[in-house]
Each structure stands twice: as C-alpha cells, then as structure tokens.
Amino acid sequence: MMDAAVQAFHGAWALLFAPFADYAFMRRALVATLALSLSAAPLGVFLTLRRMSLLGDALSHAILPGVAIGFMLCGLSLTAMAAGGVIAGMLVAALAGFISRATALKEDASLAAIYLVALALGVTLISGHGTQLDLLHILFGSALGVDTPGLLLVAGVASISLVALAAAYRGLVLESFDPLFLNATGRSASFKWAWQQGFLMLVVINLVAGFQTLGTLMAVGLMMLPAVSARLWHDTLPAQLANAGAQAMLAGYTGLLLSYHLDTPSGPTIIGCAGVLYAASLLLAPGGWLPRVFTRGHRVA
C-alpha cells in the first residue's frame, strides 16, 4: 500500500510539477504567463462590460506593423519590438476614433478596416525582412522561449496594470455601469478622451507584453476568453475579476504542462485550454446552457 502511494506521488510530481522544478525555461514561462493572466484578464472583463470585446482583437492585430518595424530596425530585439507595438497600437486606436468623429463610420467599423490593413502590412514587412521562423515566432509567440528581459517586461507591465486598475477602479465601474452619471459630473470632453486613451494604453501594453509568449494573434485570447467565461459564473464585478484571473492562470499552467508533455506549440495550447474552460462554462455555469434547461424544466413542471 505504501509503495503504491509513493509511486502515485512520484507519478503526480513528474506529471504536474517536475517540468517547472527541473527546467529554468519552464519556470520563466510559468511566471510570465501567470503575471500576464493577473493583468490581462481583468482588462478583458472591463472590455466586455463596456461592449468593446472586439477592440482587444483589433488592437492585437494592430500592433503587428509596429512590431514588424522594430524587427526590421533591430532584429529580434524585445525592446524595439515592444516600443513599436505600443506606438502602433495607440496610433490605430486614435486613428479609429478620429475616423468615427470625422465620417459617418462608427468606431467599430473603422477599427475593423484598419486592423485588417495593419495585419496585412505587418505580415508583409516581416516576410520581406525575415525568415518563416521569425514570422511564426511573432505571430504565435513562444512561452517556452521567454528570457529574462522578456520576463521583466511582462512583470513590469503586470505591475503597472494592476496599480493603474486599482487607482482607476471606481471611474471604470462608473463608466461601465452608469455613463450618464459620469457625464452629469461635468467632466470635459478632453478629460473623457484622456480617460479613454489611458484605458486603451493599458490594453495595448498588455497585448504587447503578451506577444512574446502568445504571439500577436493569440495574445488577446488570454485577455478575452476568461473574461467572457467569468460573466457566465458571476453577476458581481469583483467576483468576475477574480474568476477571470483564476481561469487565465489555470489555462496558462495547464497549457504549459500540455505543451511540454505533448510537444505542442505553447501559445496555441494555452489558448486552447482557455477555450476548454469557456466551453465548460457555457455548459455548467449558472448563466450557461444546462442550468437554464433545468430551470425551464422545473418551471414547466
């Protein structure tokens, strides 16, 4: 009996913990993914509350030309690509807002048009000045390849985002749930614009921090999938924020383990795990399908 328990313990250790205990690159990947989960998932919750879910996807594609220009100038320099991504993301957000004010197009339509052009431009630039491997690395990332500078970037962005969210929490809640009250406070249009741009800056820097681990195409997944799932489980905002962060961390941990044991790409595997949690939420959460079916059945009975 004792031998069986010891063997079971060793088996569980080898499966669940040994990769992180034995390899520094796995520890760096885990810390980076957990830090990104803590900062990106709460931002996704506020994006869904503000009905801006597609904005995250648009901005994740929009940063690609900036990343590509940084790559063209400095190669695979994390600093250059990150700076280029931040600049490109903010320019695209500002340009979409200008187009919506100057023309009959709404902001979501202008964003959709701009991010498609930005994605095409970014892929063209990288393909013309790098190898196929460089393109795949930038588009899909490699959490297992996170180095010390990359880890410091993610940790710094996560720290700044959490502090900024804590400081702006009350204003974000008011803007999300009662924008009319916020308008009644007499804030100027320039103040509201600055507030909006500050929030978008947080979204952009989290997407830029995530592109090394998850790629520019996948970075938004860890931001939006846990946030959407959390809304199915809870009605209160603090519970949604905690649930989204927990789901993102679970997806990151599980995805890294599966990527290590099955030799699959780390970024898509992490997002696939987040997708599995989303599917489970659709079925089992209080706002999901099965509880609603049972509730309707009880009402009919």
Low-confidence stretches: none
* CA gyration radius, whole angstroms: 21 Å
Identify the CATH architecture of the domain at 23-219: Orthogonal Bundle
- Succession of helices and strands: HHHHHHHHHHHHHHH
Shape: globular
**Biggest sheet descriptor:** none
Number of strands: 0
Number of contiguous helices: 15
Task: Kindly report the CATH topology of the domain at 23-219.
Answer: ABC transporter involved in vitamin B12 uptake, BtuC
> What is the level 1 CATH name of the domain at 23-219?
Mainly Alpha
Can you describe what's shown?
With 301 residues, the protein is mainly alpha-helical. It is 86% helix and 0% strand. The protein is built from 15 helices and no strands. Helix 3 runs parallel beside helix 9 and helix 3 packs across helix 12.
